[in-house]
Amino acid sequence: MMPSLFIAHGSPMLAIEDNSYTQALHSLPNLLPHRPHAIVMFSAHWEAFAQEVGVMETFPTIHDFGGFPQALYEIQYPAKGDEEIAQEAVVLLQEAGIPVNLNRSRGLDHGHWVVLRKVYPDADVPVVALSVNPNLTVEQQYMIGKALAPLRAKDVLIIGSGSTIHNFSYLDMRETSGGAFEWSLQFEEWLKETLMEWNVTDLAQYRTLAPHAEKAVPAYGSEHFVPLVYAMGAADDDRIAQRLHMSFRYGSLSHTIWQFGTAE
């Protein structure tokens, strides 16, 4: 049984950097029970009102950012798709009453490939790309992840890619030591306690219950938070949460890795 994971994709610069967080990403395959048959991955950078399930023979690499070094724009991550798993994901979502579309035209954005390139650099694990919908309630997002849970028993690794704290208004671009603002730490510790207790009720009310939620997850930027909820829902049958890594950049941009369910 594969666990599900939430992985922060941080800045696109992670694709070409070597630091404690990229090293943690490199080590992730060693923590899994075995090599996944395929990866089903939600990206914060693909928003859609109806759930989209993306599959292609080979995904093109989308460089959906600007103002970065040329080396980033030269990176390609030619992951193969998996038609069978994509079709199964569609059926599972339909059976759960979730509107879903099969998408055969969209490539992998940096929420997908920056993470995948660090975890599986040879692009040799097939991928099914999924969209996110920040307009849904936490409960609805959780149910989408839960609908896909049966895939874990087929050696499919379900990943949510986003960021638990993502607010450009509170980035200190001078902070390069990895230090974190106190409010960022307080939010992450509330989240840790809530997830480890598997308290979906409190998580659904994080905007009013979590300290500094308005800074950590601005109303206009919740799309980076919701992949965490999808990944958590995918392990509803197991209900074990473990934070594998936490570090910071620019004072508040959190790099967290969460494992949901047991790896066995």
TrEMBL record:
Keywords: Dioxygenase, Metal-binding, Oxidoreductase, Zinc. Residues 5-258 form the Extradiol ring-cleavage dioxygenase class III enzyme subunit B domain. One of its GO terms (molecular function) is zinc ion binding. The keyword NAD does not apply. It holds the Pfam family LigB. Its cofactor is Zn(2+). The keyword Metal-binding applies. Belongs to the DODA-type extradiol aromatic ring-opening dioxygenase family. PANTHER family: 4,5-DOPA DIOXYGENASE EXTRADIOL-LIKE PROTEIN. This is Dioxygenase. It comes from Brevibacillus nitrificans.
